[in-house]
């Protein structure tokens, strides 16, 4: 039997087992589906939708090209990507995954990146958003807002180091001599590129805005489907005890790093779905807070198969390969966990994040609950934003279809 037939049998068997499991565990499947839907409905859609629309408009109006010229002296030496990659990097950190992948794919479609440059860029521009790290993980799961500072530092520093490592990926491009320009000349050239890009895009503003809304909602609907799907898959794996079986393999790795074996199940859960894995890691009483933080940092860096599937679906529309992104996620997971371990003592002493220490620094007393308030605000107004956005999307889509049929 060749490898292709074996792959076909494994895929068919896996899907069949999942279908039968949903019949055997209908209640668990339904609750997991509702959990994933609520997350998308209340948090993911309202937090990502405005950024997706604005990013499409920024690309259309030439602002990204303008920023690319300004950031070229920074991004090219550090990461071996054009300056426009700086926009994708910043938006990826601000909004969370898979914004970096969407922007990287969009820039590749605009031919502002080569294939190798896009693969480098997508590998380090997908990260957890500050809202998720502070609001959901540190406040929601660990009940410790100050721990979010360490999570964020380890996560974003790890992503930066991944970008540095990925600069060595791919063939060396031919070195092009660039004339050294004064800051004023660079700014003047950036303004010229901004104007030229806007002139070349002959679409009216209304058409550009409508296309941005339609594209953003379609991407978010795909993201919501993956969130719900992997939430159900993770629950079924747990019900079938497959999670515990796979956790047995991770226990050997945990022994090497002198970590509690009870963290094996959260790791497996986090490999499939980032939110559930982070929550389970925070509930392992046999592990101390440092060990829980290390495993959570690894899960945040790896991002989970759910997020990776979203990225794979987005970049499938281009010639960007998925393998470099996947390898970068493994690297990011280990780097983030290692940084958490190395910086635990100074952060724990400075920020008083160790459990049982009631002394709170003055600079944090007024702001400890800020992320919790923000998360609760999204839960309240998020569904309203989602409903209004879907209504606008439906109207624009129907209008577009009518104009096409005329």
Automatic annotation (TrEMBL):
<keyword id="KW-0812">Transmembrane</keyword>
<keyword id="KW-0472">Membrane</keyword>
<feature type="transmembrane region" description="Helical">
    <location>
        <begin position="121"/>
        <end position="143"/>
    </location>
</feature>
<keyword id="KW-1133">Transmembrane helix</keyword>
<dbReference type="InterPro" id="IPR014226">
    <property type="entry name" value="Spore_IM_YlbJ"/>
</dbReference>
<feature type="transmembrane region" description="Helical">
    <location>
        <begin position="293"/>
        <end position="318"/>
    </location>
</feature>
<feature type="transmembrane region" description="Helical">
    <location>
        <begin position="79"/>
        <end position="100"/>
    </location>
</feature>
<feature type="domain" description="Nucleoside transporter/FeoB GTPase Gate">
    <location>
        <begin position="44"/>
        <end position="140"/>
    </location>
</feature>
<feature type="transmembrane region" description="Helical">
    <location>
        <begin position="149"/>
        <end position="170"/>
    </location>
</feature>
<dbReference type="Pfam" id="PF07670">
    <property type="entry name" value="Gate"/>
</dbReference>
<feature type="domain" description="Nucleoside transporter/FeoB GTPase Gate">
    <location>
        <begin position="220"/>
        <end position="316"/>
    </location>
</feature>
<feature type="transmembrane region" description="Helical">
    <location>
        <begin position="373"/>
        <end position="398"/>
    </location>
</feature>
<protein>
    <submittedName>
        <fullName>Sporulation integral membrane protein YlbJ</fullName>
    </submittedName>
</protein>
<dbReference type="InterPro" id="IPR011642">
    <property type="entry name" value="Gate_dom"/>
</dbReference>
<feature type="transmembrane region" description="Helical">
    <location>
        <begin position="208"/>
        <end position="230"/>
    </location>
</feature>
<feature type="transmembrane region" description="Helical">
    <location>
        <begin position="37"/>
        <end position="59"/>
    </location>
</feature>
<feature type="transmembrane region" description="Helical">
    <location>
        <begin position="325"/>
        <end position="344"/>
    </location>
</feature>
């Amino acid at each position: 039997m060749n490898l292709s037939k074996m792959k076909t049998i494994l895929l068919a068997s896996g899907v069949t087992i999942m279908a039968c499991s949903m019949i055997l565990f209908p209640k668990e499947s339904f609750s997991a589906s509702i959990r994933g839907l609520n997350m998308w409905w209340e948090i993911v859609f309202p937090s990502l939708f405005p950024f997706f629309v604005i990013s499409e408009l920024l690309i259309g109006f030439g602002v990204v090209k303008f920023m690319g010229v300004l950031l070229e002296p920074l991004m090219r030496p550090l990461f071996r990507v054009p300056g426009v990659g700086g926009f994708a990097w910043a938006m990826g950190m601000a909004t969370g995954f898979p914004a970096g992948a969407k922007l990287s794919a969009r820039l590749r479609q605009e031919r502002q990146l080569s294939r190798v440059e896009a693969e480098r860029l997508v590998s380090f521009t997908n990260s957890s958003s500050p809202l998720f790290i502070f609001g959901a993980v540190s406040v929601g799961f660990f009940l410790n807002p100050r721990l979010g500072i360490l999570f964020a530092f380890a996560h974003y520093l790890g992503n930066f180091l991944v970008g540095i490592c990925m600069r060595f990926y791919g063939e060396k491009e031919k070195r092009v001599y660039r004339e050294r320009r004064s800051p004023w000349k660079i700014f003047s050239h950036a303004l010229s590129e901004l104007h030229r890009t806007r002139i070349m895009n002959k679409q009216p503003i209304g058409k550009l805005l409508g296309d941005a809304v339609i594209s953003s909602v379609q991407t978010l609907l795909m993201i919501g489907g993956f969130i719900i799907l992997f939430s159900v898959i993770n629950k079924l794996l747990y019900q079938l005890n497959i999670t515990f079986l796979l956790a047995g393999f991770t226990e050997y790795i945990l022994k090497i790093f002198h970590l509690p074996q009870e963290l094996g199940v959260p790791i497996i859960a986090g490999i499939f779905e980032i939110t559930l894995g982070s929550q389970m890691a925070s509930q392992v009483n046999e592990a101390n807070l440092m060990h829980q933080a290390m495993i959570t940092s690894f899960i945040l860096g790896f991002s989970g198969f759910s997020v990776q599937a979203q990225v794979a679906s987005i970049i499938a529309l281009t010639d960007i390969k998925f393998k470099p992104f996947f390898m970068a996620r493994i690297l990011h997971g280990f780097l983030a966990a290692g940084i958490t371990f190395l910086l635990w003592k100074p952060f724990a002493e400075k920020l008083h994040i160790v459990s049982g220490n009631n002394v709170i620094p003055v600079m944090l007393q007024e702001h400890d609950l800020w992320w919790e308030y923000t998360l609760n605000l999204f839960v309240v107004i998020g569904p309203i934003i989602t409903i209004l956005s879907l209504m606008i999307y439906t109207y624009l889509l129907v209008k577009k279809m009518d104009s096409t049929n005329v």
